[in-house]
Design goal:
Keywords: Acyltransferase, Transferase. This is GNAT family N-acetyltransferase. One of its GO terms (molecular function) is acyltransferase activity, transferring groups other than amino-acyl groups. It comes from Halomonas alimentaria. Residues 1-140 form the N-acetyltransferase domain. The protein has a domain at 2-100: Aminopeptidase (3-Layer(aba) Sandwich). The longest helix is centred in the middle third of the chain and has 15 residues, at 83-97. The protein has a three-stranded antiparallel sheet, sandwiched between helices. Strands 4-6-5 form a three-stranded antiparallel sheet. By secondary structure, the protein is α+β, with helices and mostly antiparallel strands. Helix content is 29%, strand content 32%. It is built from four helices and six strands, in the order ααβββαβαββ. Helix 1 crosses helix 2 (20-30). A hairpin with a 2-residue loop joins strand 5 (120-127) and strand 6 (130-138). The termini are far apart.
Length: 143
């Protein structure tokens, strides 16, 4: 439930009709044996402090760019400790282990984080009313 709430709080404006029960169902559908889709959670003891996902479709009008790194979020009080970077690397590792050669993401403001991790800007566009950068990571590159 916590992850679904985070998702709605951070990105709910991109899908204003999405309800908490729908977000929860989406996260549950992403949990499983590994591969695509997958959800990863950073924990501090018993408490979740961050998350990231490997999903097939994050930008419905750009289906040709699948799969995606999505839902990278770290609670504000835990930021600046490398948690987001570790979550991104974990998603990249999962993708590599399942034969995925290229990942995509979109972000309105965190381009610098992803550039430091080896991602490259691919395209600037407006998605659901928000200016975003689509980024790409070729997973054959060294991490």
């Amino acid at each position: 439930m916590t992850l679904a709430r985070w998702e709605l709080a951070q990105w709910g404006h991109l899908d204003p009709d999405k309800r908490l029960d729908q977000a929860l169902a989406s996260f549950r559908a992403q949990c499983g044996e590994g591969g695509l889709p997958s959800v990863f959670v950073a924990m501090a003891g018993d408490a979740p402090v961050g998350m990231a996902s490997l999903i097939d479709d994050d930008m419905q009008d750009r289906a040709e760019l699948n799969p995606w790194l999505a839902s990278v979020y770290v609670r504000p009080e835990w930021r600046g400790q490398g948690i987001a970077s570790r979550l991104v690397r974990r998603v990249e590792q999962e993708a590599r282990e399942h034969g995925i050669a290229t990942l995509h993401l979109f972000t309105p403001v965190r381009q610098a984080l992803y550039c430091r991790l080896g991602w490259q800007a691919f395209e600037e566009c407006v998605y659901r009313g928000e200016a975003v950068t689509i980024m790409r990571r070729e997973l054959g590159e060294s991490a």
